[in-house]
Each structure stands twice: as C-alpha cells, then as structure tokens.
Batch of 4 targets.
Target 1
Amino acid sequence: MNAGQLEVIDGLYSADLAPGARRWIRSFRTAFPDVQMAVVELIAEGDKVVGRFTCSATHQWTWRGPPPTGRRFCNIAEV
C-alpha cells in the first residue's frame, strides 16, 4: 500500500478477492497519495489472516463522494 505496488496484490490476495482489492487500493491511493500504513499485528490461522494496522494520510482527491478536504489524519488504528 505504501509504495503503490499494485502488481503484488495477486500474491497477497486470493484470486476472487484480488480484483476488488486492486480497485479499492488504487482509488484509495488516488484520494490519499501520501498514505502510510504500518502493521501493528498479524494473526494467521489456517487459511485466514487478520491484521491490525495504523494509517496516516492527507485527503487530496475525492473519496467515496466527498470532495478533498486537504486535511491530514495520523495513526488511525484499524482492525
């Protein structure tokens, strides 16, 4: 996500999830081009993986309807 290397998605997501992940990540990086994500924790069991991470970015392009605000958010935690 940080480097915008969409070509690695096929190796990280199952074949049925990769196209949707690519669309979501591409549009998110367009709206927040300076996005920086940090993995806090990854838990894997069998074929399932759950992650916690933090995210920081500046809203520079339309994202899901709202126009860009130019505002920055820092270290928002996600599960």
Target 2
Amino acid sequence: MSAQDEPSLNSLLTIFNITRKAELVDHCRAAVIGKSDLANLILACQMQAVPIGHIPIFKHHHPEHLNPTDEDRAAFAANGVGKLSKEARKFTNKIDQMFEQRRLFCGHMFLPLEWPGHWHLFYFDQRDTDQRNNHWEHGSHLHLMNMVTHPRLSPEALAQKLDAEVRPKLGGTIHIRFDRDSNQAASAR
C-alpha cells in the first residue's frame, strides 16, 4: 500500500471506531471509499492481518418472466441477418430488459473480533456504482449499515434477512461516495 492510499483507507477504517450516529453521518458525508480500499480491507481480513471477520454476500436477481423461451430463441435464430421480425424483436427486448431490471447485490459484512456486538455491512448493486445514471445526487456510492445505524439488529438477524430475501430491502443506511475508478481516492472532497 502506498502512502497515497493511506488517507482513504484510514477514512474507511475510522468507521469501525465510531459509536455515535451523528459522528458517523458527518464522517461518511466527507468520506470517499476507493475500490482498492475495500479490496485491501477484505484481503487483510482473509489473511488475518487484522482482527476482523469478513462475510461476503452476493445475490443475483433477474425477473423470471424475462428469461427467453425456446420459441424466443428459435425466432431470433430463424430471423437471420437484417431487420428483426416481431418474434425476433421479442427475444432482444427480453435481453435488454433483463440487463435493465436485474440486480447484482454485493455485500461485505465485517465483524471486529475484539468488539463483540459490533458489525458493519457495506453493500451496493450495479445501479449504485453506475456513474452516469445514478439515483444519488453525488453519484457512485456504497451503502453502510451497522450497529450504530441499526442498534436493535443483530448481525445474525441481518444475515438471515439477506439470505431469505430474493431482493433484500434494507432501509436506514448511510451513503458513502465510492470511487470505483481510482486506486487512490481522496479521503474527502
């Protein structure tokens, strides 16, 4: 890790020490987490270089009604080169909509081993990290929920919820700017 990466990684690690919600919100408002920050933390957990447990949570959801049928595939194959028939267009429309409506949930739960009861979940889907069509005014971001934002929720109950729901609905999270393109995200903007 270079010295340039340190402020951003420190900004991420600072989250683990904050126990007051107002302080957490203020810190996250100024923070920017780079893709390498999260990756470095995950690797440090896996190598047991830090006393933090890591649980990855990945879910892929796409609406069943958008799966092309054998008839859709056959119509597309039979169409050949040129303008698409109505039946062949149905196949391409389903594929387009599948990319539009699918959800690729990526979550990382961290459990500091030295602090029982402390937990942190950083998560996003492909829409959260999209820089062009983002629903958040500041663009690409991660969501954070932890024992400060959800004091009545145990990590076990959260893991069960994430496992049970096809499209997890998680409220009360904090947005943190995410720099997916830079290996040296600034700690504040």
Target 3
Amino acid sequence: MFRRFIHLHAFLACGSLALACGSAESAAPPGSPVAALADDIALPPDTRTVEATVPRRSTLASLLAHHGLADESVVLIEEVRAVFNPRRLRVGHPYRLVFDRDGELRRLEYHVDNDQFLRVSNAVQGYAAALVPYVKERGEVAMRGQIDEANNSLVAAIDAGGESVMLAIEMAEIFSGEIDFNNDLRRGDHFEVLFEKVYREDQFSGYGDVLASEFVNDGRRLQAFRFHVPGESEAQYFDENGRSMKRLFLRSPFRFEPRVTSRFSYRRLHPVLGGVRPHLGVDYGAPTGTPVIVVANGTVVSAGMSGGSGNMVRIRHTNGYETYYLHLSAFAKGMRRGARVTQGQTIGRVGSTGLATGPHLDYRMRKSGAFVNPLLEHRKLPPGDPVPEEHREAFQAVRDSALGRLLSATVSAPAPVSAQ
C-alpha cells in the first residue's frame, strides 16, 4: 500500500557509517585486527516500522495506546482533527508507524481511501497532520470478449479476458437501454471495449472511464462513445450517430443482470395466498441487501410499510409514469415523500417483507393510472437527448479518435476462442 515511502534517514545513516568503516579498513594493514573487525560490523537500523490494518472496535486513541503511545495520543489526535475526523477510522484499512531508534514516533500514515492518506509527522515544533493525495497514473487499455458456452454472461466473458466484474457493470450500464443482459445475450455475441485503468503506487487501483465500446448482440451491432457535452454536469454515452445510449427509463431497477423469477400476468398462481390472481409487475430474484436503483428521475410519492407489499417505495415520473418497488428490506437514506431522485440512485435494498416466500423485488410500472408490463413498455420509450447540433463536429472528432484507438489496440489481440 505504501511501497514508495523511502526511509531516507536510515539510508543516509547507513551510508555514512559504511563510508567510515571503508576508510578505516583501507587505512589498516591487511590482516590487522581493524581489518578483521571491519567485515563483522552490523549497522543498527535507524528506524523501526510497524505495518498493520485497523482491527475491529478500534479508535485512533486505542490504536495509539496499543503501540505504547497513550501519553502522546491527546496531542496527536488534536492535530489530526484539523484535517481528518478520527471517527472515520475504518476496520481493515492499512496504517504504518515509523519509530526512531529511541522508540519515539516519527511518522504515522493511514490509508483513508483510494484518493488520499493521512500523514502525521513529528517535527521539532510538534506533530503536523495532513491529508496527502496519492500519485495516480491512468493507462488506456483495450480488450475483446465473446459470449460462448464457457462464458455465457458478460461477467464471465470479462473475467476470461483478465478483467473484473466492475468493468462488466460499467459496460452493462452503458448498454442497458439496448440490451437486457439477463435475457438478450446469445452465443456468438462479441464485444470490444476501450477503457482506462488507474494505478496507485504502481498497483492497480480501479477502473477509470470506458471511452468506447462495440457490442454485437444477436447480429445487431451497437457502438457507444463517451462524450462530455459542454455545459452538462457530466459526460454521457452516445451511439455513432450522436444519439443518447440512455433511455428515459432503465431496463431494470438493478445495476447488472437481474434474474426474472415471475413475469407480468393477469393470471398467476399466488405463491402465498394461493388461487389465481393478477401479478401486475415483474419479480427479480436477488440476495437480501442487493441495492435497488430508481429507473428514471422522479419524485418520491411514498416510502414505508404497505401491507402485503411490505416495505415499498413509490415514485412519480414525467409523462404520467409511476414506478413501485416492493418487499424491500431497507430504505436508502432520504427516502421520504417529496424527495427528488435521479436515475440510477439507490433507493432501497432487496428483502422479503410483506407477503413474500423469499428475498426478491417486485417491480411495477403504472402509466396514466393503469399498470403496464415494464419489460414491454421499456421498448416504446424514446432515448435521451442527442448531441446538440452545435457540438456535433466535436463529438465526431472524439468518436473517430476513440474508434481508431480501439481498433488499433484490438487488431493485434488474439480472437476469442469458443468452447467446443
């Protein structure tokens, strides 16, 4: 975690002693006691370093006391408070303590997050605390993958290419308006993707932006390019013609590959009450605690217990649409009547409250007062706004450059091999 921190004092001290010993040895005649002793001198280290991770139920004060620094903790913690809240100490985060040869603390380093670490130095005038940004580097990488018998999901295909599920989630979100990754994938589908990898202290830290991607799904070729429209708060993804990849509604209230366990129907055998009853939504099976996201911008109509529906969030959208999220185990912070939510925001977590036989989400959509099948309705919804005409030329330049880098990076890569 902290590989690049260099113990300069130890290096200088050992270097000086080594020079002194070398001088003594060169001045002594061969075979003399001085020359013999010179080979046996062991240089004591100038510092002692302790590296560990924060244990459970620890505070900064208890951590310092554990390392014999109880007497100094009050002064040190007061300095830390100026730049970092000690209550944000997290279990499992790495830290480092550097002591001098007399046992006095010279430096404390604590990993705050992927962007910065806390450093407390012991100077002549006392302790000084600072939040220090990590030095990060971004590298551009391209890969290709294929859906086949062995890799029958996007996650598996990405994994086979040596990358992680987080890249698969990014790609699924980009193409979520066009591909249902739970139901639409076909054997022989293939993709190419140009993306960034972030390195911190020479170690992989995470993924940056997906810059361009091409996905061939059931013979249909889809392309997506990242472009920041001037004046917009964040970059978006557009197809090769500048049309938005994002639709008014997401295909599902999950970030990736939900499993449909029961579909919209006017005649379904109820699993708890028995008898044939309408099921005016889509059930998605998922483990308890799985984040549930809102499919479009809107306003919370209600969030609370609702009889057999269990914990439910109801959200009103534009154009007469409302969506319902049933059987939640918990609500996200801020879920209350009148709250504004944005597409992709977490609104709760999967559960089995109300009349449910197991953890799942019952997702419903209503248009102009009547419930509709979300899976079918999504196909009728228009995409988001395209690239404005005045920025079309800039977009085309970004598109062509990204596509050229994608093709040149993958043309020499070996083609994916289908399982026999």
Target 4
Amino acid sequence: MSELPGPPLRLTYLGDFDGAHTRRWLRIFVERGHDVHAISYYAPRAELPGVTLHVLRPGAASSGEAHAASRSLGSRLPVGLQRLINGMRYSSAGLRRVVREIAPDVLHAHYAVEHGYYGSLARFHPYVVSAWGSDLLVDSRGINGLYFAKQALRAADLVTANDPALAMRAISLGVPRDKVAI
C-alpha cells in the first residue's frame, strides 16, 4: 500500500457487487486505505472484505436469488419499466437517507443505465458514474435505455470510461469533454 497524499476518503459505491468490475474498484480503494462503503438493495452473494456494506432490504433474498426471480418477471415487463421500478425501490428503501448518513466524499455508481440511474436519484455530489461498455454502447440505443443513461450522465460530476470509444459515446450523449475521464 502506498502512502495516501492526504487523509483517507470516504467513498460510497452503487453497483453489482457480485460482478468483477465493481469488486475490483472496491478492493483497490480498500487496499489504499480509504473508508469504503457499498450500498446494495440486496446482500451480495460474496463478502466484500474491508467494505462497510449497507443493504437497503436486509431481509430480502440475496442478489442471486433476486436476479433469478426477476428473470421470470422480466419476461413480462420491459427492461425500461423494470429499471424504473427498481429506481423507485431504491428510493423508497432509503437510498438518499443512507447516502446522507454515510456522508461520503464521493458517491460512485457503476454501469450508467442501471446503478448510475439509481445513484442519480440520491441527488448527492460529487457524483461519479463509471460506464463499462454495453451500458452506453448497447443499452442506451433504445428509447428507454437512452432515458436512463441521460439521467445518470446528467447528474454526474465525472464520467469514467474504460476506452476512448466509450468516452466519445458519453460525450455524444451530452457529457462535457472535461467531465469524462478514461
């Protein structure tokens, strides 16, 4: 672990905590000595070492069980409607209150059209959204995905992208160049 240039930051994340990308970000900042928090609607399947986990629905099914259950629902509801409902669920479960209680230095959401949208509902700044590819290159092509992507990106103080094409897509969706980092 290298020396921090200042005091540790309190960082709060929204994302798929069973996914490799978000877990990697958490691990890196934990290893660097920051105070890392994760907010999830459901408890992730695996532990998040060194991370303070805030589960909005602690008695609910695990994310894996919820994902399996949502597949049957997903066959009946359009993805856009599912995301709108999930955003309402995050809000009604106290997302904004939990973010305020954590009082992070930064709120950071991964995957723009889903957790990026949910994070925008917290109305917290500074707010960072990380795009990972299919969220902006595929999911934002339809009218519903475009709505959620633009909501997330409009709320963000910074958008991170993992390659230049993704950064250009964020810019084409209205993010100023100086708010996009690769």
